Amino acid sequence: EGSSPPCCTFISPFHRPRCLAAAAPAGKAKLTHPGKAILAGGIAGGIEICITFPTEYVKTQLQLDEKANPPKYRGIGDCVKQTVQSHGIKGLYRGLSSLLYGSIPKSAVRFGVFEFLSNHAKDESGRLDSTKSLLCGLGAGVMEAVLVVCPMETVKVKFIHDQTSANPKYKGFFHGVREIVRAQGLRGTYQGLTATVLKQGSNQAIRFFVMTSLKNWYKGDNPNKAINPLVTGLFGAIAGAASVFGNTPLDVIKTRMQGLEAHKYKSTLDCAMKILRYEGLAAFYKGTVPRLGRVCLDVAIVFIIYEEVVKVLNMVWKTE
């Protein structure tokens, strides 16, 4: 009498034998604890901004260089040249402190909220579908806009714009914040909130949608399949490019609403209408090239560092 293999004596369409379940290559995907996401996101955001800030500076200068006056800059190269001639290499890092102080909590909030929401949106196998990732990304973007991005970006834009004036009045980050709050109240750091919420919400919705779609495609039926950091970076760059083409007009409006001449606009809609009327449709895509370079690099770096830091945290911080 031949003996049956252990635990596989009977196979029915309703009861999958335990040995087959154990042998299946695809298990349940591991969830990332929001606490790990907050820490890893903060580290990733801080490192990334130190690498990519000069492109953010150039993008902001070109967006503020309105056609209404004769343009001060002839393009990206001319903007870099004039800045270095007037202020030295460190001129390209003017406003870094305000962005650095905000980038760490911004990325921490973004990834923390995304992981919190996605952990509740994943199916039984731990897989997050593309539609749900878009909604989770939207939620993460709105939260980071309200808690961190709007005040941080307002201060950054004012710093950069202030440098173009004949007598700059802000001596540093804390002095600048103090002057802005003294002159305009706390509300002065929340200029362009509506545009910022629209921009960040759509930004993260697009990025996490594209990133999740690409990761799901790459992993196939195995949710725990490891992804090489270079592949993660490539997926991040694609997600970043998608978000640039999807919401650069909102970024231009947000920048104008936060500049030193924001008083010219009654609302986000008024700002959009005035740009369209006086500068034409092309003005909504000012600074696209430097923004494309910065954002693709930005998103690629952030996702690579984030994923690698989470791997390290999983080894030293047991949450399951």
UniProtKB/TrEMBL annotation:
GO terms for cellular component: mitochondrial inner membrane. Solcar repeats lie at residues 32-120, 131-217, 227-312. One of its GO terms (biological process) is neuromuscular junction development. It catalyses: trans-aconitate(in) + citrate(out) = trans-aconitate(out) + citrate(in); citrate(out) + succinate(in) = citrate(in) + succinate(out); cis-aconitate(in) + citrate(out) = cis-aconitate(out) + citrate(in); citrate(out) + (S)-malate(in) = citrate(in) + (S)-malate(out). The keyword Cell division does not apply. It is found in: Mitochondrion inner membrane. GO terms for molecular function: antiporter activity; citrate secondary active transmembrane transporter activity. It is a multi-pass membrane protein. Signal peptide: none annotated. Keywords: Antiport, Membrane, Mitochondrion, Mitochondrion inner membrane, Repeat, Transmembrane, Transmembrane helix, Transport. Mitochondrial electroneutral antiporter that exports citrate from the mitochondria into the cytosol in exchange for malate. Also able to mediate the exchange of citrate for isocitrate, phosphoenolpyruvate, cis-aconitate and to a lesser extent trans-aconitate, maleate and succinate. In the cytoplasm, citrate plays important roles in fatty acid and sterol synthesis, regulation of glycolysis, protein acetylation, and other physiopathological processes. PANTHER family: SI:DKEY-178E17.1-RELATED, SUCCINATE/FUMARATE MITOCHONDRIAL TRANSPORTER-RELATED. Belongs to the mitochondrial carrier (TC 2.A.29) family. This is Solute carrier family 25 member 1. It comes from Oreochromis niloticus. The lineage of its organism: Eukaryota, Metazoa, Chordata, Craniata, Vertebrata. The gene is SLC25A1.
